[in-house]
Input
Amino acid sequence: LILCINKQNVCISSITMNINSKGEVYINSKTKQNFEGFGLNKILRSLVIILSKHIFPAAKTVVSESVNPVSAWIMIKHLNGYPIGHESLKTYRDINEFIRGGEDLQVKVDINKENIENALSVFNNTLAEAQEKIIPAKTTSTPTPKVKKVSKITAKIKRTAKSRPNAMPNARPNARPNAR
Output
């Protein structure tokens, strides 16, 4: 199974999922180079943990065979993962040196309620951050009105409403009724 994040109908980040007979969901991810650093890998890894039991009812763990230190670190730091056979690897620096030394590192995350809830939180937070980076808010050239001016307008509207209690809201002054 492949999960993919698309931008303008082009896959910019993907993750594959395969389950073995032991209930281990093996994952492998790839992000286009110009979209690295946007949190897309973290989003996909979170989704795998959230959805694994729904997709593979026999799933017990998610296993990442990391050839990239960032992927291993995401699993350990953010998703409650633990390195298999190399428990002494505690920091990003340790993981980076180990993997850059030519070794692959397996990192596991147990699929349980606590880790699914954590993955959901990581997903929501990372998604919000990624959206801001990938689709920045549009800026306008119109300056934001000052609060003082808005307050004066609000006060004027309130005074007008009090002085003309039967006036129709949003009615134009001097408008002719039933004008054609």
